[in-house]
UniProtKB/TrEMBL annotation:
NCBIfam families: folE, PRK09347.1-2, PRK09347.1-3. Residues 40-216 form the GTP cyclohydrolase I domain. It catalyses: GTP + H2O = 7,8-dihydroneopterin 3'-triphosphate + formate + H(+). The lineage of its organism: Bacteria, Pseudomonadati, Planctomycetota, Planctomycetia, Pirellulales. Residues 1-15 have a biased composition (Polar residues). Belongs to the GTP cyclohydrolase I family. Keywords: GTP-binding, Hydrolase, Metal-binding, Nucleotide-binding, One-carbon metabolism, Zinc. Zn(2+) binds at C109, H112, C180. Its EC number is 3.5.4.16. Pathway: Cofactor biosynthesis; 7,8-dihydroneopterin triphosphate biosynthesis; 7,8-dihydroneopterin triphosphate from GTP: step 1/1. Homopolymer. This is GTP cyclohydrolase 1. It holds the Pfam family GTP_cyclohydroI. Residues 1-25 are annotated as: Disordered.
């Protein structure tokens, strides 16, 4: 079974009850109550001054508060357990590859605090237990919302799926563009960083590995 993340959302087994009004509250959204907004605001003011700006000028007055809210959002996954999304599993007599491709994400490079954005592809071989497809995207989303490096993001997602689903095999391939390479330093726009983590049969059986990589790389028709 191969689906894109958009289809995964549509075929998710989550209920589609109307959102409560006036605001939709996503109970699955991670929360990071440890974020100290006031401290971020003063730090941003210090940085603005340090680069020669005037934090009191009109255009910058609300910037520190805006940046604090943005960091709270970007790092919302820091204190949460992304594995909780894999707690609800379904007994299913299906033991072939399940693949969700093109799960888009945005994370923050922990070395420069600049975003890296891209797509994750996740495949697993169930051993009697499957999970709602959109939950795989939830895991990526939450692991991405931390100060991060792409290598750790990739193997964290693979480890969680292997452990929580007792999967016979897991393949996670992540491709992304790092702002710290495209807009500063070496300045190479268009460069793509690819990482992969193979577990179980996808690591030990060359045929299974070739099959899953073929599906991940297959051009959509
Ligand atoms: Zn970086």
């Amino acid at each position: 079974m191969t689906v894109s993340s958009k289809e995964a959302d549509a075929t998710s087994n989550e209920g589609s009850a109307p959102a409560p009004t006036p605001f939709f509250v996503d109970k699955n959204e991670p929360k990071n109550d440890a974020v100290d907004f006031a401290a971020i605001e003063s730090a941003v003011k210090v940085i603005l001054k340090a680069v020669g700006e005037d934090p009191q000028r009109d255009g910058l007055l609300e910037t520190p508060a805006r940046v604090a809210r943005m960091y709270a959002e970007m790092f919302a996954g820091l204190k949460s357990d992304p594995g909780r999304h894999l707690a609800k599993v379904f007994e299913e007599d299906y033991d072939e590859i399940v693949l969700v491709r093109d799960i888009s994400f945005c994370s923050m490079c922990e070395h420069h605090l600049l975003p890296f954005t891209g797509k994750a592809h996740i495949a697993y071989l169930p051993s009697g237990k499957v999970v709602g497809l959109s939950k795989l995207a939830r895991v990526v989303e939450e692991v991405a919302r931390r100060p991060q490096v792409q290598e750790r993001l990739t193997h964290t997602v693979a480890n969680l799926i292997e452990e929580r689903l007792s999967a016979r095999g897991v393949a996670v391939v992540v491709e992304s563009t790092h702002s710290c390479m495209t807009m500063r330093g070496i300045r190479k726009p268009g460069s793509l960083c690819l990482t992969s983590a193979m577990r179980g049969a996808f690591k030990t059986d060359p045929k299974s590995r070739a099959e899953v990589l073929g599906l991940i790389n297959r051009v959509s028709t």
